[in-house]
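Reagents: none. Just compute today. FBA_2 domain-containing protein.
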Amino acid sequence: MLSMCSKRTHRLIKASCPKRDDLKIEVFFEKEGRINISSDQEDGDIWFYITEPMLDMFHSVKIGDSDCPMSIERNEEEYLINLFFEDKIEGLKTVSDYLCSFFKINNINSVHVNSKENPQAPQIIIEWIFNRQERLHDVIIICENTSDTVAKYLLDKCRFMDIAHLDLKVTPVFQTDFSFEGASFILKQAQWFTLDNLLSINCLELEVRGSILLNVGMNSFLKHWMTSNLWLRYVSIDMNVMVPHVLFSGIPVIQQEEDFRRDYRR
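Predicted 3D structure written out:
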């Protein structure tokens, strides 16, 4: 955007732009690429859309080596800046890197990506992220038409994430090993999920949907949880048909009525 100014003005603006620790950059890739800049201290967001050509793109801007047709919209709380790139993923990366450089932001805060537009997009974007930074705070990935190879890659990279929400459609023969130590881990379509996978996770909140873990395995996990220093505060795991006397074997349990409630407010 500064390329619409003179080179002297460009240098003056960039030199005077202070580092903004309150700014967050979020990256989205679905049908189109989107980048959001927000601040905890100010109202209003700025959105950059990486889109198809639009009729109202009367201006262009040079970002990196690309001359991008652009248009700007404004509503009460947001600026919407539309940019055209032939390759949406490359456009997303180029604009994100430019914004991080200009605002002196070290890390992209969060990534939301699905595989509808491109089955390889989740891996391409996560690879780019970890080539530019060591960790990622918040990730949501939905893959309905990707490969087991991509799914394995994404799960392997979970160990560098603080919050990871993954919805991965894989083949019936899918298997993998991975570990996670962060704040929150949510996994969906997890029919492949094993006890070994479960024992490799340590976080505050854990939710696993679609898993078919057996009572014996869940019993081992509960005993592990009770005798270790796991961080877990909330756990919700789908499993095979529950058999209470197997699930809680060797674990002291007090059975209560279904409508029993505890009040911890006092």
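Helices lie at 7-16, 88-102, 121-132, 148-156, 195-199, 215-227, 244-247.
Action item: order primers for follow-up constructs.
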